[in-house]
Design brief:
By secondary structure, the protein is of the alpha+beta class. Helix content is about 50%, strand content about 10%. The protein has helices spanning about 45-65, 80-90, 95-115, 125-140, 140-160, 180-185, 195-205, 205-210, 215-225, 230, 280-290, 310-320, 330-340, 345-355, 360-365, 375-380, and strands at about 10, 15-20, 25-30, 35-45, 240, 245-250, 250-255, 260-265, 275. It holds the Pfam family Phage_integrase.
């Protein structure tokens, strides 16, 4: 039986020969990526030195032949593969906030735990222990992000044929318990139309809430049903008073080392929309525009971009120990959807107004979407605040 053929990009045993007192030659056979086996040798001042020089030459030869500066082999560490994956992430068209979230997840939760391991050492059991510890220490949200990141990193090894399948696909994380689900449900409480007047009165009676512009933010939420970042990204160029429409085409995010910016797209493609809100809200914006000294419809106290996280926190503080304890901006999306449905609008029209994903594939294929619809303005007319 003949000697097993070398795999592409691999070398055989290195043999060393002394040529002089301080001169050694290291020689081996290397199978290039064209399938041809060729001898490769290097000379050094010692046996080990010659071996080291030859190994470096073989590494450089593999990189040059493969045309890939990011060669991944069985000895590549998870940290090195992570650098490749993070670079690919930066070059992708994913949202800026998504890129930042995944990079932070690697740095905060995974780097110390797995970066020194070789790709072949990351088995299902090991990955499960790592991710379940993150789940226990940092919560299900962090564990979910860490799983996405680690699956992407291990995918680098799969693509380079170092491993056959991705072990992270088999990792099972704990499901949220009943208490956690109940807490999330309480935070995202439903808001009835009949409660709006009381909520507005509560906020208008709170000097701090008024100073923070919360009463009029509530009007924006209840008229548009949009996400907080979308609402705060509105500038006056997006408001067409003549047509009675508002273009929702971005969201406010915080970028590490930069600060607050408007990401020029929403959470999904469906979120890029032009809506026709109720007349009372457009009238409110006309008055607000006349008084405004900022380019933003809902600016910070200094006229700059307003922070979504701070805004949500301020709302929580304003309703603390009130009948609206735990109120989340999501409740206004639910309220708007409920009102539009009660007025007989189709699921399609409601999805367009809120910027949800397609209600169904059929609607997506055969109907236009994202167009201003006067029916929504009429349906939300009776959510107008009392004077």
């Amino acid at each position: 039986m003949g000697r097993p053929r070398l795999e592409l990009g691999t070398a055989g045993e290195i043999r060393c020969y002394q040529l002089a007192p301080k001169k050694w030659r290291a020689r081996t056979l290397y199978r290039d990526y064209d399938g041809v086996v060729r001898p490769v040798e290097r000379v050094g001042s010692s046996k080990e030195g010659a071996k080291a020089i030859l190994k470096k030459a073989l590494r450089d030869r593999a990189r040059a032949a493969g045309g890939d500066e990011n060669e991944v082999t069985a000895s590549t560490t998870v940290g090195e593969a992570a650098a490749i994956w993070l670079k690919e992430l930066d070059e992708s068209d994913k949202a800026v906030r998504t890129k930042q979230t995944y990079r932070d997840s690697w740095t905060r939760d995974l780097e110390t735990a797995v970066s020194g391991l070789a790709g072949l050492e990351v088995k299902v059991a090991l990955a499960t222990r790592v991710l379940r510890k993150i789940h226990k220490d940092a919560g299900p949200g962090s564990a979910h992000h860490a799983k996405v990141v680690l699956r992407g990193v291990m995918g680098v090894f799969v693509r380079h044929d170092v491993i056959e399948s991705n072990p992270i696909a088999e990792v099972v994380l704990p499901q949220a318990g009943k208490k956690a689900k109940a807490a999330a449900k309480r935070e995202r409480m439903k808001l009835e139309k009949s409660e709006l007047a009381g909520l507005r009165a509560h906020l208008r009676a709170d000097k701090k809430a008024v100073r923070r512009d919360l009463p009029e933010l509530i009007d924006g939420y209840s008229a548009l049903g949009c996400r907080t970042g979308e609402l705060l990204a509105l500038d006056w160029t997006k408001v067409d008073f003549e047509a009675g429409t508002i273009a929702i085409e971005g969201t406010v995010i915080r970028v590490k080392g930069v600060g607050l910016i408007v990401q020029p797209h929403t959470k999904s493609e469906a979120g890029m929309r032009t809506v026709m809100p109720p007349k009372w809200y457009m009238d409110l914006l006309k008055r607000r525009h006349a008084e405004s000294t900022s380019q933003w419809v809902y600016p910070s106290s200094t006229g700059t971009l307003r922070d979504p996280d701070n805004t949500r926190r301020q709302l929580r503080e304003a309703v603390h120990k009130s009948d609206w304890e735990g109120l989340h901006p999501y409740a206004f999306r639910h309220l708007v959807a409920t009102e539009l449905d009660a007025q007989g609008l189709s699921a399609r029209e409601i999805a367009d107004y809120l910027g949800h994903e397609n209600p169904s594939m059929t609607q997506d294929v055969y109907m236009n979407r994202g167009l201003a619809n006067s029916a929504t303005a009429e349906a939300l007319a009776d959510t107008e605040p009392d004077d």
